[in-house]
Specification:
Length: 472
């Protein structure tokens, strides 16, 4: 990436650069940009880098400080936080001028709305991890920031994937950009990928098994939600493993302290959400473990890309539950590679069988069952509605089961037991509804019981003056 991007940037061209994580994109734009800015100091912001997360912004600024240590170039970082000291330092850098500002879009917008930010001297704009910023909903903020920048500037866009929305934005903010692409959406060659088939209750014992059987120097465990991160952390701490968690609910001080302790090997496991998957560069990270399969296939590439950076090697392990099989099939299609799948150890019980045609619950499918395009079979308390087959004809779904059908974890359910016995009242709109499939209650003789209508109470008269009556 650096060999191809640096000459283009030095020549002053706009650039769209797309490459997998871990290929040195940060240095690819900082080195030539600093070469252009050095020796031309002024009291205004000359270069702006926008990044999606605080961690990535801090890392870019740390790299900038290392590269400019023996120069007169200055840099500052702008990110969210409750500490007023952060705000005062950020405001000072924006007001007094700085060669490089690295910022998250939301906090920079807040400063700009107060009227003291001057970008009239800006020469270079960089969008780092542009695809992630759009996924996080920063498009309006980015376009608002760009609308206040000088039209004559150099714009550089770096991204790990190149979806159509990135192309659209590039056409709006760039002028005849050059392009560099390296192995889009492919994990680095040094990553050994594997997966375990496991039910949810098998995952914590499986982590213990991996830590016992493999030489794990350091590991990041990725989960799909903050609640899952906290739950996994508690469970592993109960088993006396030195672990720490990191997600967006923690303060900036807590997040930085957690990363520093992990990098200093004070503990070898850190558990986090996808906040950790973008731009976090940790030396000699031996293992990445996906406790949950990521919702987006591209996020898998970023997660496993935390290991095997800069031509090193590492292992990436993914736990696949029955509900995640369809998502993992999309990942394999994206990376154009079949990942080796292993069963959980025998002592943990039976493992699910990999079936890439299985669909996750939700998104137009009945709970616990499958349908054709819409609707689906019944499975968990509520039944599925009708579906539409490939030939366009509507087909009715099965009625609801209280305890029948497959469980959400893919295991067989108990025998279906109707809630009520006796003849159905076919005149009831509930009984005629193929979705609910309900049966009205019956008495001991098997006759349908009609619901009694509740009489409406007459409002109590109020005394003169409109005040409600009071007791003594």
């Amino acid at each position: 990436m650096q060999a191809q991007a640096i000459p283009i940037i030095l020549d002053g061209h706009d650039l769209i650069a797309c490459a997998q994580t871990g290929t040195g994109k940060t240095a690819a734009y900082l080195i030539p940009a600093f070469q252009r800015l050095i020796g031309k100091g002024q009291d205004k912001v000359r270069m702006l880098v926008l990044a999606p997360t605080r961690e990535l912004a801090l890392q870019i600024e740390a790299n900038a400080q290392a590269l400019t240590y023996f120069t007169d170039l200055s840099s500052a970082v702008i990110f969210g936080g409750k500490d007023s000291a952060y705000w005062d330092d950020q405001k000072k850098a924006l007001v007094n001028g700085c060669d490089l500002i690295v910022a998250t879009p939301g906090r920079l917008i807040t400063h700009m709305m107060l009227g003291y930010v001057d970008f009239s001297g800006l020469e270079i704009l960089v969008l780092d991890e542009a695809d992630k910023m759009l996924d996080m909903g920063f498009y309006p903020d980015i376009m608002s920031i760009i609308s206040q920048l000088p039209p004559v500037r150099q714009t550089l866009m770096f991204s790990a994937t190149m979806p159509p929305k990135i192309r659209k934005m590039a056409s709006e903010i760039m002028k005849t950009p050059k392009e560099v692409s390296l192995a889009i959406s492919k994990p680095a060659a040094g990553i050994k990928q594997m997966a375990y088939m496991a039910y949810d209750e098998q995952k914590i014992p499986l982590i213990e098994h991996i830590l016992r059987e493999r030489e794990v120097e350091s590991m990041i465990i990725f989960a799909s939600s903050k609640i899952s991160v906290d739950r996994i952390t508690r469970q592993l701490k109960k088993l006396n493993y030195p672990v720490e968690s990191l997600h967006s609910d923690k303060s900036q001080e807590e997040r930085q302290a957690a990363l520093r302790a992990f990098e200093n090997r004070e503990y070898r496991i850190i558990i986090g959400t996808d906040v950790l998957s973008r731009g976090i560069d940790i030396d000699n990270l031996s293992h990445v473990l996906n406790y949950d399969v990521p919702h987006d296939a591209e996020d898998y590439v970023h997660r496993v890309g935390r290991t095997a950076r800069a031509s090193s090697t590492g292992e990436a392990i993914t736990f696949i539950s029955p509900d995640d099989m369809g998502k993992f099939a999309l990942i394999e299609r994206l990376i154009e590679q079949d990942v080796v799948k292993l069963p959980a150890p025998e002592e943990m019980g039976e493992s699910p069988v990999y079936d890439p045609t299985r669909r996750s619950p939700g998104r137009g499918f009945g709970r616990g069952g499958s349908g054709q395009r819409s609707g689906g079979g019944g499975g968990d308390r509520r039944g599925g509605g009708g579906g539409r087959s490939n030939d366009g004809n509507r087909r009715e779904g099965s009625g609801g089961q209280r305890r029948g059908g497959p469980r959400r974890d893919g295991r067989p359910g108990q025998e279906n037991r109707p809630r009520n016995q006796g003849p159905a009242n076919t005149d009831s709109p509930v009984a005629q509804n193929p979705v609910t499939g309900g049966v009205p209650p019956v008495n001991a003789e098997g006759e349908a019981v009609k619901k009694k209508k509740r009489k409406k109470r007459k409002p109590r008269p109020r005394p003169e003056g409109g005040q409600p009556p009071v007791n003594s």
